[in-house]
């Protein structure tokens, strides 16, 4: 099932595909008038659609069925990660995070971050491509923070358990907390968090846990944590 980004243009439940998706739909997938396709507005709404009009770079379709929150997880999962030196590795982390059900993405600058800037437009484009790839219907919320202190302060009142992965920690608990409720994970940069950052996290009641005996790349650490989170939440739901 291919899913396209669409925008409702009339109250009669008529939708228009984005220009890029219209090209993919008609040129690559060779869809024609009368064909059934799937679309999402990226805001949690998904639709089964019938193509009713094809023009140059434009495709119109009418709604047949509506599917709220298609492909969306039962619990929210937030990931905050320090900016990575390699843009391609950071983009891979974002892509896999979306595929693994992340609902909120918070890049931030840690003390050991070598990279100090990034393109939020690029991240949004990657996130959009990822939701279409894994058949989700809601683009994750994306917010950038200039420091770890700013990140923690902004989410001080967020009633979601927070977990910080730290190489020097030897704590492996929190399985029950992760499997039964929303989760907020914080992953550090190349070189890990500084001791001061770990102490700051503790002041904000963030749970510190071990990433295991193997030393991961920063993006692998994020994917590792999110994979376990995805498994626990889905295993709990199906058990």
Number of helices: 7
Q: If strands are numbered along the chain, what order do they take across the biggest sheet?
A: 8-7-6-10-9-11
CATH class of the largest domain: Alpha Beta
Kindly state the number of beta strands. Answer: 11
CATH topology-level name of the largest domain: Alpha/beta knot
Tell me the distance between the termini. Answer: 27 Å
**What gyration radius follows from the Cα positions, in whole Å?**
20 Å
* Order of helical and strand elements: EEHEEEEHEHEHEHEHEH
Supply the helix-strand structural class. alpha/beta
Biggest beta sheet attributes: 6 strands, parallel
pLDDT below 50 for ≥5 consecutive residues: which ranges? Answer: none
What best-fitting shape do the alpha-carbon axes yield? elongated
Strand percentage lies at 25-35%
CATH superfamily of the largest domain: SPOUT methyltransferase, trefoil knot domain
Domain count: the total is 2
Named CATH architecture of the largest domain: 3-Layer(aba) Sandwich
Question: What fraction, in percent, of the residue positions are helical?
Answer: 25-40%
Mean pLDDT: 91
Give a structural overview:
With 239 residues, this protein is α/β, with parallel strands linked by helices. It folds into two domains: 3-68, Hypothetical PUA domain-like, domain 1 (Ribosomal Protein L25, Chain P); 77-238, Alpha/beta knot (3-Layer(aba) Sandwich), CATH 3.40.1280. The chain is built from seven helices and eleven strands. The protein has helices spanning 19-28, 87-99, 120-133, 148-154, 175-180, 195-203, 218-238; strands at residues 3-10, 14-17, 36-40, 45-55, 58-68, 77-82, 104-108, 141-142, 162-165, 183-187, 207-209. A six-stranded parallel sheet has the order 8-7-6-10-9-11, sandwiched between helices. Strands 1-2-5-4-3 form a five-stranded mixed beta barrel. Strand 3 (36-40) and strand 4 (45-55) form a beta hairpin. It is elongated, with a radius of gyration of 20 Å. The two termini are 27 Å apart. The mean pLDDT is 91.
């Amino acid at each position: 099932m291919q899913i396209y980004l669409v925008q409702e243009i009339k109250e009669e439940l008529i939708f228009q595909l984005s220009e890029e998706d219209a090209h993919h739909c008609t040129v690559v997938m060779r869809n024609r008038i009368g064909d059934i396709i799937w679309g999402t507005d990226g805001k949690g709404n998904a639709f089964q659609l019938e193509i009713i009009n094809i023009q140059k770079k434009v495709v119109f379709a009418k709604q047949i069925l509506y599917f709220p929150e298609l492909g969306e997880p039962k619990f929210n999962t937030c990931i905050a990660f320090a900016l990575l030196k390699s843009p391609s590795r950071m983009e891979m982390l974002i892509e896999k995070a979306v595929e693994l059900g992340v609902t909120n993405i918070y890049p931030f600058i840690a003390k050991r971050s070598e990279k100090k800037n990034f393109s939020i437009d690029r991240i949004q484009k990657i996130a959009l491509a990822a939701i279409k790839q894994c058949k989700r219907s809601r683009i994750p919320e994306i917010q950038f923070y200039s420091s770890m202190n700013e990140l923690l302060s902004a989410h001080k009142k967020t009633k979601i358990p927070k977990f910080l992965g730290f190489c020097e920690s030897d704590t492996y608990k929190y399985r029950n907390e992760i499997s039964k409720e929303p989760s907020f994970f914080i992953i550090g940069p190349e070189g890990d968090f500084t001791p001061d950052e770990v102490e700051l996290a503790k002041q904000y009641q963030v749970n510190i846990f071990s990433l295991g005996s193997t030393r991961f790349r920063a993006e692998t650490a994020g994917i590792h944590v999110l994979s376990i989170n995805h498994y626990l939440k889905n295993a709990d739901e199906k058990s």
